[in-house]
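As promised in the previous annual report, we have extended the structural survey to additional targets. Below is the entry for Ribosome biogenesis protein NOP53.
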Amino acid sequence: MSCNKFFSILIIDSFISLSSNMASARRLKRVVASQPGFLNLKSTSNSADSASGRRKRLNKNKKKSWNKHSDINDVEDFLQDVRHQERTTGGLLSEKSDDSLFFLDVGQPKKPEQKGKASRPLRIDLILQHDSLVPPPKDVLAYQQPNAKKLRRSAQRAEQLAAKGVVPRRRKQLLNRRPVDRTAKKAETEANNNPGREYYDIWGQECDAADPWYLQQTRKSLVKRPERLNEKPSVLPAVEVIAPGGSYNPDFFSHQALLQEAHEVEVKKQKDENKIERQLAVNREDTATEETILQEQVEGLVEEEENEEETAAPKGEEEDVAVGAITLAAKKTERQRKRERAIKIKEQQRLANKQQTDHRQQLFQLRSIKASIKQQDQKTKTRQRQRKDNQEAQKAQPRRLGKLKFQPQDMEVQLSDELAGSLRRLKPEGSVLKDRFKSLQKRNLIEPRERAKFKRRHKLKYVEKRAFREIT
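The corresponding structure token record, generated without further manual editing, is:
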């Protein structure tokens, strides 16, 4: 107990001495601040606190209070100084050698004699240069490799097998492969019915695997690619250059020609729209009225009654005549048949004589026949030439690849008052993405298509909310 009392008295004594020292320090600060020549560097609030002599008590038992009430300006200044040294010199000055910081001044070096002016970099190039000596951060994604762990294990396994002297199966296959002479020309396949061709057994143990006939019969040779697959679907270029009138500062005549072309396109569109309107137009004279409806309903009723009365009487007579005609028809006699046969033979002879006479007459018409044949050949050649020209022109046109027809893109033309005259005031028009999409359709690479329409799967369900129900 005596020891505990001694320690408690010692602690109280030290606390009293510490408090007296702090009080004397605060008193000294107040005295200094009251002097007329003292310059205060703190804010007014701090000076007021210091003048009042009250100390603001802060609770620093949490990390949030540390960040809020701790003074880290010296640390920030130190880090800013380090970053500045790294930016300007590439590292800390304390870590650099004396040779890199100091140099020996031996005077101005002699300039070599040059005929022309020494080339110096331009000011704009110096501005664009990177002025920081800090190396760029390392791109971690550039060093990542897919399946790196699996590949590393495979490499380790291969090293272990190589240390044991085991050759992998794939390595054996590569070593056993027959070297291919790529400089040698491919031998042409000989015909099957050639008696001079060497004979060998396909199913035998020893066979020449490089023989074209063997490769063809065993289906190991590659199939020859058809030439039509190498043809382009269209002769149009991938990027079509617009006419000279489409420039930002075009010539007057070329710009007028482009405007005329755009005008013709719009006139054609207007004609098509007017044609559709005329076809769908309704004639007012053809509209039905009450009189025309009544006339259509009554039409034919009176005439049918009169026709029935007229045709009722002679109906019986016609039936008697028809029955009598059937009964009067008699069988032809042999004399009549011979006469008809003779007439038929005579007609055939007359036609044969006429045909022979025509052939004889054609001998005297050889000139006219030759002229007609020549004229027919000329017409045939003209048609062939026209058909070939149409085929060549058709190659430059988009084909019908789907159910939709190709619609050309609208021409991007500026009027005379819209011309910019310089690239600075030029306004961009159109869309590059849409232009490339239309180009693919025009060159028959993809079919013309339209944007997919949204089709709702379920019907909309309208629910009346409670708040709305209470208001209404």
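The radius of gyration is 55 Å. Residues 141 and 148 are 13 Å apart (CA to CA). These points will be discussed at the next consortium meeting with the crystallography subgroup.
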